[in-house]
Amino acid sequence: MDENQELEEQFAFLLKDLQENNIQEFRERFLEMHIYEQGQFYQSLTDEERLVVYTYLSPKELADMFDVIEEDNENMKDYLAEMRPSYAAEMLSEMYTDNAVDLLNTLDKKQIAKYLSLMDAEDASEIKDLLHYEDDTAGSIMTTEYVSIVANQTVRSAMYVLKHEADVAETIYYIYVVNQENQLLGVISLRDLIVNEDDTMISDLMSERVISVHVGDDQEDVAQTFRDYDFLALPVTDYDDHLLGIVTVDDIIDVIDDEAASDYSGLAGVNIEEVSENPLKAASRRLPWLITLLFLGMSTATLISHYESLVSEASILAVFISLITGTAGNAGTQSLAVAVRRLALADEKDNNFARLIFSEVLTGLVTGLVTGITIFIIVGFWQGNFILGFVIGMAMLCAITVANLAGSLIPMLMDKLGFDPAVASGPFITTLSDLTSVLIYFSIASMFMSYFLA
Amino acid sequence: MDENQELEEQFAFLLKDLQENNIQEFRERFLEMHIYEQGQFYQSLTDEERLVVYTYLSPKELADMFDVIEEDNENMKDYLAEMRPSYAAEMLSEMYTDNAVDLLNTLDKKQIAKYLSLMDAEDASEIKDLLHYEDDTAGSIMTTEYVSIVANQTVRSAMYVLKHEADVAETIYYIYVVNQENQLLGVISLRDLIVNEDDTMISDLMSERVISVHVGDDQEDVAQTFRDYDFLALPVTDYDDHLLGIVTVDDIIDVIDDEAASDYSGLAGVNIEEVSENPLKAASRRLPWLITLLFLGMSTATLISHYESLVSEASILAVFISLITGTAGNAGTQSLAVAVRRLALADEKDNNFARLIFSEVLTGLVTGLVTGITIFIIVGFWQGNFILGFVIGMAMLCAITVANLAGSLIPMLMDKLGFDPAVASGPFITTLSDLTSVLIYFSIASMFMSYFLA
């Protein structure tokens, strides 16, 4: 709490410096703060105040701060637009390449070209290279600011290289060893450099079994490698082992957050990454799913209307519609969540399609049996009619089993077909399960109609 | 792919070494592998083979490998139990303290005491200290293997300290500056040490605005600080600024994974962290929720049974029960997911309870209006009865609005009461919304009964 107060006090001082044109005081106070806090302050300013900031800070100083502002911040575009183009271009080239690319990717092609034309050729070409990688691949999240050395040198000379590249490299804690063709031969950690004698040869120290990822690898697989090995950075190579860049752990945290949000969104049938407080906007994002599912729900209604004569004969049947569809829907949602999780965790080879489905159907049978017997007893006593209880219990058993089948089969099919299994949303499964549950329920009911009405 | 083959080949060689008692070859090959791969190999062995491993490797060598095996691995207990107690105790004291504590926490008190009594006093007391911290706090995930120095020395002497502590410290990339009472005064990164001259004083280099967390802070808040500042480690202090330990980014990735899994589990109404392929076990974990919700669903059935006479008069009403409950349930799930997300993201001060609820109800009104009008038109034409269409549309509008209210109000109330809002599960909201939807539907229907039957 008092840390927050201290920070707010700093912000107040900074604002005063800005308004009173105390450029020197402002710079000292501002540059002393952590870059994340610099970003917080910068984002709290008005348009006019930010224009002053661009005259107080160098493009390099602004770049350090821009490196930590979330790239999905909606205002980033506007910030860029309000700077002088040459200032913005210089700032972009001072940012870590991966962050600059993320930022440029939010602009249209014409603007990107404008900024690239204002940079020096080398920076522009590095950025251009990264702009081409597909979304969600290792290439799209890597940066080119790594430290590489050749093997044929001592710890002392490697430390010398490090000292001089430390300022621009995104991490100096791993040093990659390459040959003349820039092919990755080994890796050595700064920790190894520190604990070993200055005269030791790098070739004797380096680990030759480098864990690396390919530039086209899915970012989720890259995240899994980070989890397994507890690395702080991983080298990215092409398919002939040429070192292209590195992925750092802070980018991986973003990947993990994004994937979790997308799984969660799938289950909920709403994109939670765009949490807006504007009810109209929020509604417009939720309606497409709701209306689509409304039409799917209409087929359930149509199905029930076929059984309307059954209901008018035995209105008691209407009493249990929502109980059966609801319970089956709950079971289907559980099944869906487990299937999506299992697909995310399992290695390729472990994905024995048939076995997983079989196990899920069996789970459905067991839960269905327990739930069915429970409701059989309740309805039997409540309505004093054990045949009706049997119909409801039987329908429950079948509906739950089918819901479990649908909840596991659909995400697995999507996975097989190359889609993200998480887009098989929870609401979709429950609405689909409404349809099958109603069909099962009325089929069984019509078979036993004459008995329980007696 | 060929990386995997290479690894499998290594595993085959290792197994052969083990079976043929080639201890020297085994040790060379084994220790050359990355510790994660060592763990993979170790876990693939039979009980007998593992017993041989314990004679080939020192407790320290085994400890390095145990540091990366997931602490939630069910077999860890058995591994410990099969080692000689003194070997196990030595291994535990060689592990990073946080990992040793995680492992010990899976054992019962008597066993913990046994291992602690076999360790040397200092190691035992460090572990004992950490065992006391509450789950899910910074204290429970921190480790005590950090590097600290006093300010009054040069870069050269700090590097000397670092060299000698590098072997035991979990990270050497941040060095914490403390006073005689071990109170945190500043921090300096290894990067700063490397780029500065050997004679520079630490006091001139260190950053005095240290970002730290308190030992009792929630681990989610710690994770958020990592996200904001892109740190690799954070110091943990007591409330008088004494440095107690550090949290490293690899532990934070576990925290982020756990929290995502628990949010997802909440929405699905099933614990996805225990994905089992045994259908009986899986069923036993899903049934408690299903049966609980079955009883809640029974109240919906009871409610409908009060309207049974209405249904027997107008069996067409039964046709739309599942459409209305299903659509309202879908809307409620969306609302729940957004509310849980918003609560996770928002700062304390931003959580204006009334405003968030109001905005969610408004979103419900808008989505309800659009959905209601759609279904009014569909039912009107389909059944040739626009009064019936009006009843269904009106019920839809009200049911969706109420579902949105419930979906946002319930997690927010839970948050206010100090519970994790994510435990308000999706299935609970849909089942609750079934009840309110049916009540709304039949109330409106009974009001307009005489009109649409005409």
UniProtKB/TrEMBL annotation, chains A, B:
Keyword presence, Acetylation: no
* A Gene Ontology molecular function term of the record: magnesium ion transmembrane transporter activity
**Cellular component, GO annotation:** plasma membrane
Q: Enumerate the UniProt keywords alphabetically.
A: CBS domain, Cell membrane, Magnesium, Membrane, Metal-binding, Transmembrane, Transmembrane helix, Transport
List each coiled-coil range: none
Alphabetized SMART domains for the sequence: CBS, MgtE_N
Q: What is its main location?
A: membrane
The membrane spanning regions, by residue number, are 287-304, 316-340, 361-382, 388-414, 435-453
- Going by the entry's taxonomy, the superkingdom of the source organism is recorded as Bacteria
Cellular compartment(s): Cell membrane; Membrane
Q: Where is the CBS domain?
A: 142-205, 206-262
Q: How does it sit in the membrane?
A: Multi-pass membrane protein
Q: What does this protein do?
A: Acts as a magnesium transporter.
The family note in this entry says: Belongs to the SLC41A transporter family.
> How does it associate, per the subunit comment?
Homodimer.
Q: What is this protein called?
A: Magnesium transporter MgtE
**What is the source species?**
Enterococcus phoeniculicola ATCC BAA-412
